[in-house]
Design brief:
Elements (H helix, E strand, L loop, with lengths): L6 E10 L4 E8 L10 E5 L9 E11 L2 E7 L7 H4 L7 E4 L16 E7 L4 H13 L6 E7 L8 H10 L3 E7 L7 E2 L3 H8 L5 E8 H13 L7 E6 L1
Parallel strand pairs: 7-8, 7-11, 8-9, 9-10, 11-12
Antiparallel strand pairs: 1-2, 1-6, 2-5, 3-4, 3-6, 4-5
Length: 235
């Protein structure tokens, strides 16, 4: 972290994705090398925290110089109140993409399970598109996305379109506080039901700490090992 370099990144677009989530398009002065699943670190002046940086998952690469961040507002957060004051034309200090929460470079010969809550879906948006569109991954892919309400389902139309286009992509949004015609409650019983008939899986987990701990325990109880489970925590 001490050797981390920060670059000027211009906010070129801000999109209100849900009542509490905004998508920020950041444009750097130089081309960026990005792997699906990585994050960037933003540096803030006057941050009310022991550190002056915060990390945010990358939800997509728009072009050679531009990245998309998907950020949820937290009134008591150290950085999001400052970030949500920024608008188009403002400049942030941002690292280049970081992190090893990425897909294997070699072909994946397993069923893939992406399990997330909230903005934890951001890195999976990139990973799933890469697998389906670029790698032509043919084995089943499952996305279990836990949200509180229907309005919180991020990138809903985009995932629904992928599910219609690619028969091996199974999209499972789950709502814990709304009644609707889809899945309800928490994500755990829903992915466990699929795992009753699936014997070979690779798991990517991203989201709230408690959900991740329980999911990891559930998967390990089925006989999977640490090598089968990739985790990215946030709170």
């Amino acid at each position: 972290m001490n050797n981390l370099q920060f670059h000027k990144a211009l906010i070129t677009e801000v999109i209100q994705e849900s009542p509490t989530v905004r998508r920020f398009i950041l444009t750097y002065e130089q081309p960026i090398h990005f792997k699906a699943g990585q994050f960037v670190i933003l540096k803030f002046e006057g941050l009310n925290h022991q550190f002056d940086t915060r990390s945010y998952s990358i939800a997509g690469q728009i072009d050679a110089n531009s990245l998309e961040l998907c950020v949820v507002f937290k009134a008591d957060g150290a950085a999001t109140p400052l970030l949500f004051e920024q608008t188009i034309g403002d400049t942030l200090l941002a690292s280049l993409p970081e992190g090893r929460f990425v897909l294997p470079e070699e072909p994946i010969e397993k069923n893939l399970f992406f399990i997330c809550t909230g903005t934890g879906v951001a890195p999976f948006r990139c990973m799933i598109r890469e697998l389906l569109v670029e790698r032509k991954h043919a084995l089943p892919i499952h996305l279990f996305f836990g949200c509180r309400k229907k309005e919180d389902i991020l990138y809903k139309t985009e995932f629904e379109k992928l599910a219609k286009t690619f028969p091996n992509f199974n999209y499972h949004p789950v709502l814990s506080r709304d009644q609707w015609d889809g899945l309800t409650g928490y994500v755990h019983p829903h992915y466990l039901k699929v795992l009753e008939t699936t014997k070979d899986g690779l798991f990517y987990l991203c989201g709230w700490t408690e959900m991740l701990k329980q999911t990891r325990d559930n998967i390990k109880n089925l006989g999977y090992t640490r090598q089968d489970i990739k985790v990215e925590f946030y709170d």
